[in-house]
Design brief:
alpha/beta; 5-stranded antiparallel beta sheet
């Protein structure tokens, strides 16, 4: 570890909310007990990173910080008491950096609800850097056969989509709406197909609907068309579940209207402000509205297995760290395909 004690790295740093990230030279962080130092190979850029950097949430990160929570890299140094991993192993560093391990949520397999959790790229510096420190208990091994530029988005977008589909409680053969065919949505279509669901893709951009069709969606619907929900009800009898990855408030109402009685709407996208809940159909159709936040370590192993078996692919645009602000702008303005 001594070779990194006085070393420096490039990192993209949030110095002020809503301002461009700053590329800086910073000291390479050193791993403490039960930590590993990872040389970053690939780091996915998620809309959540943009929300964090723009200060869109009620609870704000403490600036300065380094975003990035979809990180793949190689272990180059070990902290004390690390026995289960070795230098040279490839690992993934996900959103969930650490939890308390003792609360009712951690003890019942719901660790993503831990009130004391630390999240990579928010409370703990993340992967928009050449090196990142990770908690050995929360990293996951990445198979050598898996492309790191595929594995990185699976750690965030893939995991969130997969967990959201599990939370929908849909069964194989049932209809599932995926609303918003972006980073999460185009992966969600593929997970849904691999899980045996029939998929309805909804978006306002025709190229994204074309991507959804290529990913296996049976029905692809332009949300700008009138009577969209009525068409879904006529063609399918109503969806059994809907997964809303879009940030647009109207996407929530449209997804609810597409559900059949007893259906479930799972929310992944987080538009700024509140979204009104149409109580009448929720009550009379016995609908369920449920949030889903990332996934547990067990969910992550499952989500990666789908990708390793070739059932999930990621449409992506690879850029250098110095282009992070251009990548953020592309996400803000919906110019990203996949």
């Amino acid at each position: 570890m001594s070779e990194y004690r006085h070393a420096h790295m490039k990192a993209a740093v949030v110095r002020a909310f809503g301002r461009p990230l700053v590329i800086e030279e910073l000291p390479v962080p050193l791993p403490g007990p039960r930590q590993v130092l990872v040389r970053v190979v690939a780091s996915g850029v998620c809309h959540t990173d943009v929300h964090a950097a723009d200060g869109d949430w009620p609870t704000l990160p403490r600036v300065p910080f380094i975003p990035g929570h979809e990180v793949v890299g190689d272990i180059v140094a070990l902290g004390d008491d690390v026995e289960e991993l070795a230098i040279g192993e490839r690992v993934g560093v996900p959103w969930l950096y650490a939890t308390c391990g003792q609360c009712e949520y951690c003890r019942s397999g719901r660790e993503t609800l831990c009130p004391l959790q630390l999240d990579t790229g928010v409370q703990v510096n993340g992967g928009f850097a050449e090196y990142v420190v990770a908690n050995v208990s929360y990293v996951v091994r990445i198979p050598e056969t898996l492309d790191p530029f595929l594995a990185a988005p699976v750690l965030g977008a893939g995991l969130a989509s997969y967990k959201g589909l599990k939370e929908s409680e849909a069964q194989p053969g049932q209809w599932v709406v995926v609303s918003g065919i972006g980073g999460l949505g185009h992966v969600a279509v593929q997970y849904a197909r691999a899980m045996g669901f029939r998929v309805i893709a909804v978006d306002v951009q025709l190229p994204k609907l074309a991507l959804a069709a290529a990913c296996g969606a049976e029905l692809c619907i332009d949300a700008r068309e009138p009577n969209v929900a009525e068409l879904v009800q006529q063609d399918t009898g109503g969806a059994h579940a809907a997964l809303v990855t879009a940030d647009a408030p109207e996407a929530f109402a449209t997804a609810l209207a597409m559900l059949r009685s007893g259906g479930t709407c799972v929310l992944l996208g987080m538009p700024p402000g509140d979204v009104p809940l149409p109580v009448y159909p929720v009550v009379t159709k016995r609908l369920t509205v449920r949030g889903s936040i990332e996934g547990t370590r067990a969910d992550l192993v499952e989500a990666l297995d789908f990708a390793t078996r070739g059932l999930v692919h990621v449409t992506r645009d690879v850029r250098r760290l110095e282009e992070i602000n251009e990548a953020f702008d592309a996400i803000r303005h919906g110019r990203v395909q996949g």
